């Protein structure tokens, strides 16, 4: 799962609407993410807890810019 982190420590992530994750988050907006462990042997992680929402309209477009700003786009 890809993530982006805003200056306010707001985490932006995406998932397909049909996934079990999306369906569960629509039923219960409480979320806990464990982030880290990208390098073998490095067990440093952070657990982040909060509420999730499903943006739409102008907010969705703003968050897409945040999400894609650090990612190379397919050519």
Descriptive overview:
By secondary structure, the protein is α+β, with helices and mostly antiparallel strands. It has one domain (3-69). It has helices at residues 20-27, 57-69, and strands at residues 3-5, 11-13, 30-36, 45-51. The strands form 2 sheets. Strands 1-2 form a two-stranded antiparallel sheet. It is globular.
How many strands, what sense, and barrel or not for the largest sheet? 2 strands, antiparallel
Given the structure, what is the number of helices?
2
Helicity range of the residues?
25-40%
Q: In total, how many domains does the architecture comprise? A: 1
Would you identify the regions where 5 or more consecutive residues have pLDDT less than 50?
Answer: none
Oligomer: single chain
Annotation, overall tally of beta strands: 4
Name the overall outline.
Answer: globular
Mean pLDDT, to the nearest integer, reads 88
């Amino acid at each position: 799962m890809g993530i982006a982190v805003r200056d306010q420590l707001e985490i932006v992530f995406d998932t397909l609407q049909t996934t079990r994750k999306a369906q569960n988050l629509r039923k219960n907006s409480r979320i806990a993410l464990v982030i880290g462990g990208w390098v073998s042997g490095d067990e440093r992680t952070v657990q982040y807890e909060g509420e999730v929402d499903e943006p739409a309209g102008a907010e969705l477009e703003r968050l897409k810019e945040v999400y894609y700003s650090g990612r190379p786009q397919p050519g």
